[in-house]
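This week, work through this protein record:
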Amino acid sequence: MIKEDFDRILNSRLNEETLQSIVNIPGVSEIISKHFNNDTLLKEETPGSIINIPGVYEIVSRHFNDDILDVWEYEQYIKVKEIVERIELWNPEFQRTIVLLNLLNELTEILYDTLDLKLDKYINLRALPVREFHKEAVDKYAAYPIWTCDFEGSCLVGAEKFEIESIDSILHRLGDE
């Protein structure tokens, strides 16, 4: 999670709070009292504005840390679900393989780097649609691994890292022209 994500979620969480509930977080009241030189807050202060007082942001962010992480993780799962749905709608008859490659890269970045999950939990690469014209070659060289080909003959290949390769170069290299 990057700081911008953390701050966005924290600010959203603060909008749900009252000024008094923020001040009641242990340690915040003391800082606020020193900042205003008394125990009375200025009427125009908001939960979002008091976290700009030195020392308050750190206390408030620690206080809401678990909530923020839960929200952020939930957002990542929503992103994963949306990407998986787009992958499932990919059609090799009229969409380029680069579209699929970009979606898979985005998905693997979230799964591996963020959620520490595996791609095969969400996507069955063998179930990807293949342009009918290239289906026989994809089936024959599945061990390469070749996963799918689009209407232009661009194929999604690779085991650890996905790449795009033309069906002609695959067939040439594997000796089946």
